[in-house]
Amino acid sequence: MRKVVDIIPTHTVREGGGFKVRRPSRMNSVQSPFLLIDEMGPVDYGPGEAVGAPWHPHRGFETVTYLLDGRMQHEDSAGNSGELNPGDVQWMTAGRGIIHSEEPHEEFRRTGGRTHGFQIWVNLPAKNKMMAPRYQEIPAKESPTVRDEGIWARVIAGECLGVSSSIDTVIPITLIHVKMEEGSGLIQEIAPDLNAMIYVFGGRVKLEDPLSVRNHPLPFGLGVKQFVSDGELALLSQGEKIEIKSESESEFLILAGPEINEPIARYGPFVMNTREEINQAFLDYQNGTFAN
């Protein structure tokens, strides 16, 4: 059974055109393959106030946008365009390069309203960093959900309670949005070769280690309760399962993926393996060959 080995708090920053995000304070290099977990909002906009992320480039990784509230529209240099509504997922593999924008829908910008969601950056291994860009959009009605005794889960990637996602990921990824009623419990299997974490953005949950924590053994069955609260990212130990119990009505993401174990050279929207590759990305962007 996996247990909590570290708790990372969040801080609030401004991104893109000035929208507010809540971000784990040490997300830059804490656990492969996730580079960034940004909780967008929740924020209530008045008419004409909503902001987004104007045109900008990416290379060497994937961006996952998951919308809970609000309405956004997107467009990219590969010719993809559309809109995101509550429950929709946009999984964009930047690969060798893509330029895109994510902005409030024109109608939403005019009327205002609540925006809440996530953008997650997933690193790619060196062999995939220059792959052809690709784009997957999964509307809420096609994004599988499951209910079971006080639990609701949307399976964005991976598997939960016997339900699997249809999304095609470059590397093995688990990404599950879970809501739990007070007192409910969930046992989630995670392949032992994957790193795992939990980001709580509502309420409080506890994880139980049936044998020990920090190498202090306890009699079998007593367990050690480890709490994760709203605005905290919990990094988990190695293991095969996570046992989660809800202390209150709670909401969180379960994330897991492989340890890539390669050098990371990162500058703004580019994530490569060497400084030379970063410099080449800038040159390609400047001379117009970036997204060709």
Task: Identify the notable features of this structure and list them briefly.
292 residues; mainly beta; Jelly Rolls; 27 strands; 7% helix; 54% strand; globular
Q: For the largest sheet, list the strands in their spatial order.
A: 11-8-5-10-3-2-1-23-18-25-16-13-12
What percent of residues adopt helix (DSSP H or I)?
A: under 10%
Rg, rounded, reads 19 Å
User: How many structural units, i.e. domains?
Assistant: 1
Report on this structure.
By secondary structure, the chain is mainly beta. It has one domain (4-258): Jelly Rolls (Sandwich). The protein contains 2 helices and 27 strands. The chain has helices spanning 106-111, 275-287, and strands at 4-15, 19-24, 34-45, 53-58, 61-69, 72-76, 81-84, 89-93, 98-104, 113-123, 134-138, 145-147, 151-157, 159-160, 163-164, 174-180, 185-189, 194-202, 204-209, 212-213, 216-217, 224-229, 232-236, 241-246, 250-258, 265-267, 270-272. The protein has a 13-stranded antiparallel sheet with strand order 11-8-5-10-3-2-1-23-18-25-16-13-12. A 4-stranded antiparallel sheet has the order 4-9-6-7. It has a 4-stranded antiparallel sheet with strand order 17-24-19-22, with no helix packed on it. The longest helix has 13 residues, at 275-287. Mean pLDDT is 90; it is low at 212-224.
